[in-house]
Amino acid sequence: MLKEILLHIISNLKSQKYLMNKSYSVSKTAASLSILAAGFCYCQKCDLQFEGQILDLHDDSPISLAVVRVLDNDQTAFTDYNGFFKLKNQCSGKINLKISHLNCEDLYQELNLNKSVFKKFYLEHHIESLNEVIVEESKIKELSSTAHNYLLSGLQKDRYSGSGLAKALEQISGVNILTTGNVISKPMIHGMFGSRVGIIYDGVQIENQQWGQDHAPNIDQNAFEEILLVKGAGVLKYSGDTPGGVIVLENKLPKINDSLYGKSILSGISNGRGLNIVSSWTKSYSNGNYFKAQAMIKRIGDFSAPKYILSNSGTNENNISLSFGKNKILRQWKTNFSYFSQEIGILRSSHIGNVNDLVYAIDLAKPTIIKPFDHQIDLPKQVNKHYTTGIQYSKRYKSNGKLNAKYSWQRNNRKEYDVRRGELKNKPAIDITLNTHDLLSNYQWEKSNWSLDSGVFFQIQDNYSNPDTGTRRLIPDYLKTELGTYFTAGLTPSNNFSLGFGFRFSHQNNHTKKYYKNKRWNEGNYQDKLGAFVINEVLNQKLVEQRLIFNNLSINTGVKFALSNRLNLSLNLFHTERAPDIAEMFSDGLHHSLATIEYGNPFLRSETTQKFLVNFEKEIGNFTYNISPYLTNGQNYIIIEPTGIEYTIRGSFPVWEYRAVNSTIRGVDLDFSFSLNNSIKLRNSSSWIEGFERTSKAPLINIPPFTSTNFIQFSIPKFKSFFMIVSNKITLNQNQFPNHNFETSVVENGVRLNKLVDISTPPRSYHLFGAELHWGPYPFFSDKVSLSLIFENIFNSSYRNYLNRLRYYADEQGRNMMLQIKISH
Amino acid sequence: MFKNLHTKPITALFLFILIFACSKDEDPVPANEEEVITLVTLEVSKVGSSEIIKYNFEVEGHDHDDHEEEKDDDHDGEHTEIELEANSSYNVSMFIYNDTDPNNIENITLEVIEEKDEHQIFYAITDELSGFSIKSASDDTLDSNGNPLFNKTTWTTTGETSGDVVGYLIHEPTSKTGNTRTDFGGATDFEIEFEVHVKRNFTSHYK
Which chain A residue has its CA at the smallest distance from B98's CA? Predict the structure, then answer.
């Protein structure tokens, strides 16, 4: 009680600052004292004093002449010039308030009064001018005014909540996944992956050693409400060096009211006997503050192919993300933190010693090591951790301009454990830590028929390879600094025509320090070109310090026409310049799964691509189709290919080196959908692509074969809470592949044989069938519950996937059944 | 009030960046290759004789500057010939080293013997080498199931012949016994070809 009084007195003293009338405050203190006396009585008191202040939600300015009315007893008070009001002689218990003002929407609020209080209320002021803003914010954000934007539906997002980002995106035509085993998967857009595909979270590109084929993006897509995709170059606001496309993960701003809501998804997975739990919660307040928390836990054991267990293919994942912000409509700020932690088992049989082991694995046609199922993750494995934190601020001006500023820090640590000998057993063979700081600021200016966006960005990236691994560094230590600017403009002169243009310039400075082995140094004739940069020599190695500078300019331009009511045509031209990434220039090491030695090429220059993309969209009654052909020409297009054999004491190894070629990639994506009647919908997504070197016409490696997916969706008009999808995916044989086969000499049963190492021939075509049954939502106490039962590879077919790096060792996973319970709180 | 709230963290962040931005000044430490095998030695002695002949097989990672003139020969060491006398028995011991750092040569044989259950040495004899056999020696290392590791072997010759013996060190073999390399599974830690010549009138080091 004493504390209460003290607080009250303090608040009185505070209000003295604002109030001119001193006697008022004296009487208030007296009132407080009377409460002290009354406080010992437990009967209903009707001598409470209810005070408050009414403020504008957007700028905290006081609102004068607002009416505060207690609906229970019809008492009213007006706010003064400083927005203060006072209601005397209130009874304890619940009261209902109505706060109104000429220019504001009425605010109704229930309040439990048991002592004299002082409370702040926020009103929506100047609604008129805001309407426009609110409408603009709530519509789906278009990443590009002329290129086609794909938004993953809520259903698809939830369905793939436990499968990783790449699998969720694979549903879109033209998107494939490049995998290493069952868990590690990277999105591939129009035949490009890794550094050529940007993954943007909260406006910043994720930096997690995305160069490697076996490096999956370290991000939990469940922390984001919207997943958008632009195929082909895309969004200069976020990146200028991603000719493949851009994936954007974003969160919507919570509504400004007092509420708590959330969603939890529980998935039980039969193949791998796994469990995946995702839960996210948002608490928002009427003053615009909000708090979001999200977490995910995943435990999956060894996956199974139809005929055997894929030993050591399980995964564990623990993620958490928190954000806190204030949404004032005209001004917003947000700070966030996230932690991503993942442990991935790598198929035990894929860890081989030399090429002859590879030959044996290919001949055997099943994994060499098959153990009983378990949840244990043994060697080899990857342990990845990704931390992000950042703060952002945006402000909207009366001129319809919006200023955004953001700082973000990402820290990625990747540890790869091999099967090793002796004391090295539990030491990672690769231990790299990547720290990236981004500072961005942009200004958007929007009017009804045009929009401009211009910004500057600055990035510092520091890579550190831990030397205690007992192996040579795969990637050298480097410090990358990038500074740049972009400008994009969209013009919509009429409803059926829009025009877009943009450029992005970046200046990149790579400061690297790399040890070259003398052997490699001599073989590559590096002395002439790099001899001047040697700063130290130790133990048959030369330390070379280089500063590599790249200036890149990327330009996009596009138009979109509505040829008729139901027919849209868009044409986009992207010119993209990409600096070779550190791995392409400097990687140096042995890849155990392919038994290849990989060397970077320190003399690479920026890669340039021109992409022409057409999108043709038509709706005829209940039939819609979307045809999107594209053509990409690359100069200095960086590829990796075998250049020879290196003989080591371990045996022979093919050497793969990076090289720049002129390339052409072309293809077409098709999407059809047709509603047969109210209960049956048909859908098809297909994509065809080919890629080759322009001079030699040799096909490019890892270009996806033709795929076509059919969906039939059934629903029963009587039962609104149930529908079912049956799907069938056809993946044809890839006939266009570069022949990198070679011969190796083996001794089998005393006979020396020359054996062909067939690492090039793609696997046979396959059909996969799946089914999804969805029930709900059903009310469950105050929540809503939905149930889904999902079958993948329903006929348990054995197949291998051309885009799986471990395809030489084992079949893909067999039948999987997943039960999903989704609760909306 | 709102403005003040934001200028402070932003200033703090700039300071933060400045601190982080200047951290790449010292040179990276050279990473030592602790795991690689760079040298395999066969110590051969005729039964009854005390003389030991050492044959060194070294390939990768082996660009000591004094070997510079041999840099074009990738097969360096691969065809070192082992000369044996007909109708004789030899004790052959295998030693495995990492001599990347000449001042700190690591004897990996000890590690392999310690992890005998997870390793296997296998000699594949090509058919050209007729009448030639390799057996586990009496002082060979046995694993916990009594399977010989084959680091100490007895090589027996009969008539004149020549051909290849391929020596393998296999890590985590799926089987500890077998007749050909693929019977063992596992990952190959090294694979070396020894060219063996068995001669009748022997006038070399063995007396």
Answer: A649
Q: Give which of A353, A363, A351, A441 is closest to A395, Cα–Cα.
A: A441
Cα–Cα dist B159/A250, whole Å = 79
Alpha-carbon radius of gyration of chain A: 31
Mean pLDDT of A575-590: 91
Q: What tens digit of pLDDT does each residue of B104-127 get?
A: 888 989 989 999 999 999 999 998
The CA distance from B205 to the nearest CA of chain A, in Å, is 27
Query: Which residues from B are below 8 Å from A435, CB to CB?
Result: 20
Distance from B128 to chain A by nearest Cα, in Å? Answer: 8
A61 vs A338, residue with greater confidence: A338
Mean pLDDT over A735-754 rounds to 89
Of B16, B59, B180, the CB nearest to A648: B59
**Per-residue pLDDT, B202:** 60
Q: What is the pLDDT of residues A23-50, one digit of tens each?
A: 444 444 444 444 444 444 445 667 888 8
Q: In this structure, are residues A422 and A464 in contact, taking their beta carbons and an 8 Å threshold?
A: no
DSSP class of residue A348 equals: G
- Is residue B61 within 8 angstroms of chain A, CB to CB? yes
Query: Does residue A298 contact residue A162 with C-beta atoms inside 8 Å?
Result: yes
The helix (H) or strand (E) run that includes residue A582 is: helix A582-586
Domains of chain A: 2-125 (2.60.40.1120), 136-248 (2.170.130.10), 249-824 (2.40.170.20)
Phi, psi of A619 (to 5 degrees): -125, 120
* pLDDT score at A233: 66
User: What does each C-alpha distance from B24 to A435, A480, A484, A546 come to in angstroms?
Assistant: 12, 10, 22, 13
Assess A437–B contact: CB distance below 8 Å, yes or no: yes
- State the average pLDDT for chain B: 78
Assign A141 a pLDDT band (cuts: 50, 70, 90): low
Residues A781-789, mean pLDDT to the nearest whole number: 91
Q: Where is average pLDDT lowest: A249-258, A313-322, B52-61?
A: B52-61
Delimit the domains of chain B by residue range. 34-199
Residue in the block written with tokens 């820090």: A409
Q: Which residues contact A106 (CB under 8 A, 6 or more apart)?
A: A98, A99, A100
The H or E element spanning position A12 is: helix A2-18
Q: Which residues of A233-254 are buried (b: 16+ CB within 10 A; e: fewer)?
A: bbbbbbbbbbbbbbbbbebeeb
A538/B30 touch (CB, cutoff 8 Å), yes or no = yes
State yes or no: pLDDT of B37 exceeds 70: yes
The predicted structure's pLDDT at residue A14: 45
* Residue A593: pLDDT band with limits 50, 70, 90: low
* Neighbour order of strands in the sheet with A197-201: A149-151, A226-231, A245-250, A197-201, A204-205
Contact A543, A537 (CB under 8 A): yes
Tell me if A100 sits within 8 A of A62, measured CB to CB: no
With a CB cutoff of 8 Å and minimum separation 6, the contacts of A505 are A240, A484, A485, A486, A551, A552, A553, A554
Maximum Cα–Cα distance across chain A = 111
Mutation to test the B interface, candidates A421, A518, A548, most B Cβ within 10 Å: A421
ipTM, 2 dp: 0.80
